[in-house]
Amino acid sequence: MVTIDDKINLFSRIIYDEVNEKIKYKLDELEKTEEETIKKEEREIEEYRNRNIKKINEKAKSKLEKEILKLRVKEQKEILNLKENIINEVLYSLRKKVVEFTNSTEYMEYINRHLDNTLKNIKSKNDIIIYFNKRDMERLSQFIREKNIEVSYETKDIIGGYIIQDKNNKFRIDCSLDKSIKDCKEKIGISITELFM
């Protein structure tokens, strides 16, 4: 026969099993929720870490690119300064050689021949004025008298050569050695630039 104690025990066991099952269900649910929360947090942490790594990499790359650009600009400026210095040195040497040339007998032959050729191409020699530097005007006085050309006694500040201009200021022919040096500057610049390529 079943006693009250047995019934209480049976009832207790049933309640205990039910409670135990509910607790197990709740624990499983809690564990599952906890697992999902942990995974979600891990994903968020991973995404945050990846975003920060990406930002740090982008900042580092940007900073590196800026530094490289600064160095390239600095290098280009240094190369440009070097080119300018070389051009100026070459022009200085050229100018020095040209000044030496103006002291030679070859220069007088050159200027007589060159001026004679230029005058052949001018139709009306009466309408022109020729400008020389003071020294050449003195040295070419005989040539000027022979050709019967008008010379301006307003001397030009040129190394050598001459400048021809008509009286009406319609044309001007610059055959000065300064102009020749200036024309050489571009060629010298191109040659020096090619050296750096």
From TrEMBL:
<dbReference type="InterPro" id="IPR002842">
    <property type="entry name" value="ATPase_V1_Esu"/>
</dbReference>
<protein>
    <recommendedName>
        <fullName>V-ATPase subunit E</fullName>
    </recommendedName>
</protein>
<dbReference type="InterPro" id="IPR038495">
    <property type="entry name" value="ATPase_E_C"/>
</dbReference>
<keyword id="KW-0813">Transport</keyword>
<dbReference type="Pfam" id="PF01991">
    <property type="entry name" value="vATP-synt_E"/>
</dbReference>
<keyword id="KW-0406">Ion transport</keyword>
<dbReference type="GO" id="GO:0033178">
    <property type="term" value="C:proton-transporting two-sector ATPase complex, catalytic domain"/>
</dbReference>
<comment type="similarity">
    <text>Belongs to the V-ATPase E subunit family.</text>
</comment>
<feature type="coiled-coil region">
    <location>
        <begin position="16"/>
        <end position="77"/>
    </location>
</feature>
<keyword id="KW-0175">Coiled coil</keyword>
<dbReference type="GO" id="GO:0046961">
    <property type="term" value="F:proton-transporting ATPase activity, rotational mechanism"/>
</dbReference>
